[in-house]
Amino acid sequence: MSARTRELMGLIPVSLLVSAGFAAVLLTRTEEVSDATATYGLVFLGLCVFAHLFIRARLPDADPYLFPLAALLAAFGLVVIYRIDAELARQQAQWFVIGLAFFCATIAFLRDHHVLERYRYTIAAAGIALLVMPRLPGIGSQVRGAYLAVDVGPIQFQPAEFAKIAIIVFLASYLRDTGDVLVRARLKPLPYVQQAVMFALPALVVALIAVALDVGPAVTVLLVVFTVSMAAVMRERPSLKHFGPLLLVWGVAMFMLLVIRDLGSSLMFFGGFLALLYVATARLSLVGMGATMFLGGATYFASTVGHVQQRIEVWQDPFDRELYDAVGGSYQIAQSLFAQADGGLFGQGFGQALLELPSGQSILPAAHTDLIYAVIADELGLFGAAGLILAYLLFASRGFKTALVAADGFSKLLATGLTAVFALQVFVIIGGVTKVIPLTGVTLPFVSYGGSSIVANLVLLALLLIVSDHARKDRGRMDQGGLV
Amino acid sequence: MNRQIVQLFGLSMLLFATLVGFTSRWTVFEAEALKDQALNRRSLIEAQQIPRGLIRAADGTVLARSVPKGSGQRRIFQRTYPEDNLFAHAVGYSFLERGSTGIERYRNDELTGEEDEFSSIFSELQSEQPEGSDVTTTLDLEAQRTAVEALGDRQGAIVAIEPATGRVRAMASSPDFNPNEVPTDRFRELNTDEEARPVVNRATQANYQPGSTFKVVTAAAALDSGKFSSESIVDGTSGQPVSGVPLANFGGQDFGAITLTDGLTNSVNTVWAQVGEQIGPNTLVEYMNRFGFGQDPPLDYPEDQMNASGIRNADGRLVGGDGGFDVGRVAIGQGGAEGQIQVTPLQMAMVAAAVGNEGRLMRPWLTEKIVAPDGRVEESFEPQEQSQVMSAESAGELAAMMSRVVEEGTGTAAALSGVPVAGKTGTAEVAGAQLNQLWFIGFAPVENPQVAIAVTLEDQPLGTQGGQVAAPLAAQVMETLLR
User: Fold this and answer.
1) A357 touches chain B (CB under 8 A)
2) pLDDT tens figures, A46-60
3) In the structure, what pLDDT confidence band is assigned to residue A231 with cuts at 50, 70 and 90?
């Protein structure tokens, strides 16, 4: 069976799911299945088959599982959004069509992703510009203290969704070039005694100083990890010049934290950067330094930028009465947890979750965007939520697989970066909703309501498919012994 | 590079596993704690979205129903009470913002269709909308109306019981309130009215002095203990010392040496005080306990809306037979600092019912049956014996004595045409002997009684008597129930 036929087969369960999902929601609404459900399923299947045919024509060798997985997530998202608000689902369906147009356009105009390398500084500039847009007077708008959205006429869009792609493209291209320069060829491992002197001694000194200054356990650990990483980096005696990019990106991340004031998207960007840095240099020490510097900076801003500070307090103690009643306080995360508690193992069933107060006010703020995962956990329970996470994990596994198969460094880094930032976005929002980390306003890719999100993630998918098509094509030729 | 990519995938798996771990923490492991969180009002809001079952009178008349407001997701159900004030205390109310009382509270699980874990899985599979069951009460619509109208704007209570079964046929407390107004500000006013306290169910919560109606309890102890018979002669002279202090008869009247029957007919204090002293505190308390004193009545009604009747000391605590109370004065429904007899109207109705039912006290009950939404009877309740207070012979003798009270004694105003009535009146001085608490307890017909009743009116002017004011009210309610 060819890759494309497998892709087509994969779409069948997706359309079945979307029909069954709409039927389930409608059942609880009107207690009779209208013809609409079959129509929804058929239209969705039609769109997907169209996209599939497009892929078949242009990217015949691309990974066969990525698109059905994305379609599955999007279908699932549509059902849940439909359950929350039918009108929003209609808009989301429109955005899905627009997203598919972008998806096809990307594939049509970008025959070879290596072209992107040529424009990397332009792309980087565009990425930064996109990030700063929400702070521009006139078009920028603030949502819950964070600057993530831009109003253009009637449309509100979230530039960070697109910026993440631009920045990953830039970093992949930049690190392909400088990754080797950043670190020297691997040195011989030192004898244990010298290792101890080099790492343990400074670590101990820093730890003692930290304890003496009484800065708290978290900061102590940060400082120790930073010292050990620093020592490891210094051992390779890199020139300061090569530290440049690390410091630059750290600076950008801090700047973003300050400008956008959103911990979640900063974490997403910087995490994506660290993932790429690690893959490009194979140095944990660099990641250690970067991570501690980011956390240090974040801790500093958390204590100075009021909005970030409140987010963290709210995260630590969501049931504090004062925080609960405060504007932008813990009401949202507390309600998220309450909604999940109603779910149990199997959930209350589609359409059964309590979303509105009798007065018509929403009990779950931003149920269709930030908290959509809480709605899913409420209605489908632990099993449904774990199934969703499994779908994301499968998507990530196909993304990383693409990176593994890719032949050249840029392709590998691009696929890795796109996948990593995608997976991190999933972690940041679900982690926020389940109180693993402070809740911030990023979308759940393909599932949350949001035009920018669905369009940007379909473009991300298109890039992954292009990389995949090239990689598997090259490999195919090699297997046939044609070009080697 | 490939090794790092695989490691990165490993890290993603780890992160996603953390997400699943935390999700299971909130959805399963800590779900109960989250549901109990004070800030979590989801279950209360959801309860509003389930229609509660109906509450009906014995004849099927609807006393409480849920009406939908709004539609779709926003549809909620609110309670309305078609009979307004009539069953305010017995049925009670149920509102999200005010809590619930009465039968609404006691039968909440049945009314909301609360199911155990197993059957809830079944109804989930059938995707049934949860719906509450109906509660049919033992209350008689006409008797209740008669009782409420009889009390009018006077403060007091009327309780009527079917002696052979314990069914509560009427339970009225005045002043009352309109349960439909409970969600409004009007209710806040009523709730803070310390004078009239309309929210209190006087039938089950009041601590009243029973006055001479308590002589029925003393008489039961006297006859059944074998120390006295209805023909025993006791000196009825006024001003005899009881516990060292002279006790006066009503109006200072001297009766001379008379039988116990005459002593009851004319409610002679000195006769019954001596009887009390001769049977002693332990015997008196034992018979009281057999009548149900000393504990909350076993009524299917919220515990904190009921009071135990009994002998209470100055601190309001119940005292036993060794409490050192003035047994002579307690025996005639009075007392002192060491112990004062205090009763609820429900308890006094139970006393009358036990005498009428050959000495057998039946457990009082309000819920006749629970009917599922599909019409199936889920639970049907049966009469239960609470205790055998005295022998049938003693009960018969006492019933005969009480018949004389209505035939020619203080209780003639309770007489019904064609139906023999037995009863006892009571007039207790309260508020430093400035006001009277008026009573009548009784049952009819004397043979095979269909109704036992207690009527009381509080804070009536001096000069009024239970036999003149309370007895006619009892007659009206009994007549309604005997029709």
Assistant:
1) yes
2) 898 999 999 999 998
3) confident
CB A472 within 8 A of CB A114: no
Paired with B381 in beta bridges are none
Is B8–A280 a contact, with Cβ atoms under 8 angstroms apart? no
Across-strand partners of B379? Answer: B370
> Which long-range CB contacts under 8 A does A284-289 form with residues at least 24 apart?
A284/A229, A284/A232, A285/A228, A285/A229, A285/A230, A285/A232, A285/A233, A286/A182, A286/A183, A286/A229, A286/A233, A286/A246, A287/A229, A288/A225, A288/A226, A288/A228, A288/A229, A288/A232, A289/A226, A289/A229, A289/A230, A289/A233, A289/A246
User: Cβ separation of B12 and A416 shorter than 8 Å?
Assistant: no
Under CATH, what is the fold of the domain B43-129?
Penicillin-binding protein 2a (Domain 2) (3.90.1310)
Q: Taking CA atoms, what residue in A is nearest to B72?
A: A29
B16 vs chain A: nearest CA distance in angstroms?
Answer: 7
Question: How many domains does chain A divide into?
Answer: 1
3-state class (DSSP) for residue B74: helix
Average pLDDT over residues B93-106: 87
A202–B contact, CB cutoff 8 A: no
Domain of A164, in residue numbers: 3-187+236-479
Question: What is the H or E stretch that residue A187 is in?
Answer: none
Superfamily covering domain B141-482 = DD-peptidase/beta-lactamase superfamily (3.40.710.10)
User: What residues of chain A lie within 8 A of the CB of B127, using their CB?
Assistant: 27-28, 349
User: ipTM value of the model?
Assistant: 0.91
How far out from the chain centre does Cα B314 lie?
A: 24
How far is it, in rounded angstroms, from Cα A419 to Cα A393? 10
A363, A389, A396 member nearest B9 (Cβ): A396
Cβ proximity of B398 and B220 under 8 Å: yes
Task: Indicate if the pLDDT at residue A89 is higher than 90.
Answer: no
B22, B28, B48 ranked by CB distance to A434: nearest: B22
Question: Considering only alpha carbons, which residue of chain A is nearest residue B76?
Answer: A358
- Type of residue found at B420: P
- Check if A343 contacts B (Cβ < 8 Å): yes
Q: Does residue A354 belong to the interface with chain B, where contact is any CB pair within 8 Å?
A: yes
Q: What is the Cα–Cα distance from A9 to B72, expressed in whole angstroms?
A: 38
**Top-ranked range on mean pLDDT: pick from A476-480, B35-39, B96-100, B259-263:** B259-263
Give the whole-angstrom CA distance, residue B401 versus residue B412.
13
B361 forms beta bridges with B387
Q: Which pLDDT band, with edges at 50, 70 and 90, does B475 fall under? A: very high
Q: Is residue A224 part of a domain?
A: no
The H or E element containing residue A351 is: none
Average pLDDT over residues A375-380: 92
Cβ of A342 and B35 within 8 Å? yes
Alpha carbon distance A406, A404 (integer Å): 6
The reply to whether A426 touches chain B by the CB within 8 Å rule is yes
Return the SS3 of A261: coil
Kindly list the domain boundaries of chain B, sorted by start residue: 43-129, 141-482
Residue A217 lies in a domain: no
pLDDT for res A482: 47
Which residues on chain B are in Cβ contact (under 8 Å) with A85? none
* Residue at A203 is within a domain: no
Pairing of strands B240-242, B245-247: antiparallel
Sorted by sequence, the CB contacts under 8 Å of residue B238 that are 6+ apart come out as B247, B248, B249, B252, B253, B254, B255, B269, B270
- Please state whether the peptide bond connecting residue B302 to the residue before it is cis, i.e. omega within 30 degrees of 0: no
Given an 8 Å threshold on Cβ–Cβ distance, is A358 in contact with B13?
A: no
Burial A109-120 (b: 16+ CB within 10 A, else e): eeeebbebbeeb
Minimal C-alpha gap between A431 and chain B (Å): 6
Closest CA to A31 of B432, B81, B72: B72
Contact A337 B34 (CB under 8 A): yes
